Amino acid sequence: MSRTHTVTDSPYGPLTLVATDSVLSGLYMTEQRHRPGEETFGDPDPRPFREVISQLDAYFAGDLKEFDLPLHLAGTPFQRTVWEQLLLIPYGETRTYGELAGALGNAGASRAVGVANGRNPIGIIVPCHRVIGASGGLTGYGGGLDRKQRLLAFERGLPDDGLF
Length: 164
Hints:
Blueprint: E1 3-8, E2 15-20, E3 23-29, E4 43-44, H1 50-60, H2 77-86, E5 95-96, H3 97-103, H4 110-118, E6 131-132, H5 145-155
């Protein structure tokens, strides 16, 4: 299993992209909670990330609403199930932790869904920012609540003025 990484710019700060055997396995923001140590990212090599960067650029330009990339989602079976549910949340929409738990057949698992959501290794592309609290308010986000708010406003076509 070989790992490589590169860093690309975004409107939300630098993004570290990690590939495992040339398949995207990580997208990390600066100061992200649960960000693995740099030593786990492998050697710098931008080659496996050309398509990822192209799609991210199109997303940030407002031209791409759904990513089409192979992903290597490494986690527990429950985490992978949660992350697969995240991929079903349409661009510009949100779901609550409870709604995700219900979709998994266990309405009482919203806290476990939240923990799994926070461990998502491929931010933005696996859209954990689209999950909100039961009251409709913004709750934790590994990349910071400011970034979550800005991403949601961006996807809804709202001005980036700090209001959600």
